[in-house]
Amino acid sequence: MYKIEILEKKRLEKGLSYTEIAGNLGIHKVTVSRTLKGVSMKPRTVKRLADYLGVEMESILPSILATSVLGIAWSDSFAVELGKAMIM
């Protein structure tokens, strides 16, 4: 679904731990770990991590999705709606 490896690479470049990211975002470190390892990829969490790490959402979306949503602002509500659509 997402190119999560881009987020994990950025985390390593910045020297951030899962615990540090979790503390700053107010989410559990297991959520950060599972997301950045690609185990669980809830759109809202991916969006929050991308924002925190300074990664544009368009760079981690598969090209077909990036093309279809180009020009749409990435808000939390849009990320949630996109997640619902991807599940259906």
Short account of what is shown:
With 88 residues, this protein is mainly α. 68% of the residues lie in helices and 0% in strands. The chain has helices at residues 5-14, 18-25, 29-36, 43-53, 57-60, 63-69, 76-87.
Task: Give the arrangement of secondary structure elements.
Layout: H1 5-14, H2 18-25, H3 29-36, H4 43-53, H5 57-60, H6 63-69, H7 76-87
Helix pairs in contact: 2-3, 4-7
Offer a few descriptive terms.
mainly alpha, 434 Repressor (Amino-terminal Domain), single chain, 7 helices, 88 residues
Describe the structure.
This protein has 88 residues and is mostly helical. It has one domain: 434 Repressor (Amino-terminal Domain) (Orthogonal Bundle), CATH 1.10.260. Helix content is 68%, strand content 0%. The chain has seven helices and no strands. It has helices at 5-14, 18-25, 29-36, 43-53, 57-60, 63-69, 76-87. Helix 2 crosses helix 3 and helix 4 crosses helix 7 (76-87). The two termini are 14 Å apart.
Order of helices and strands: HHHHHHH
Rg computed from alpha carbons, rounded to a whole number of angstroms: 12 Å
Question: Structural class, from helix and strand content?
Answer: mainly alpha
Number of strands: 0
Task: Please indicate the percent range of residues in DSSP E strands (runs of 2 or more).
Answer: under 5%
Mean pLDDT: 81
CATH architecture: Orthogonal Bundle
- How many structural domains can be distinguished in the coordinates? 1
What is the CATH C-level name? Mainly Alpha
Q: Please give the share of residues in helix.
A: 55-70%
Low-confidence stretches: 66-72
CATH superfamily name?
Answer: lambda repressor-like DNA-binding domains
CATH fold name: 434 Repressor (Amino-terminal Domain)
Major sheet characteristics:
none
Termini separation comes to 14 Å
Principal-axes shape call: globular
Helix count, DSSP H or I runs of 4 or more residues: 7
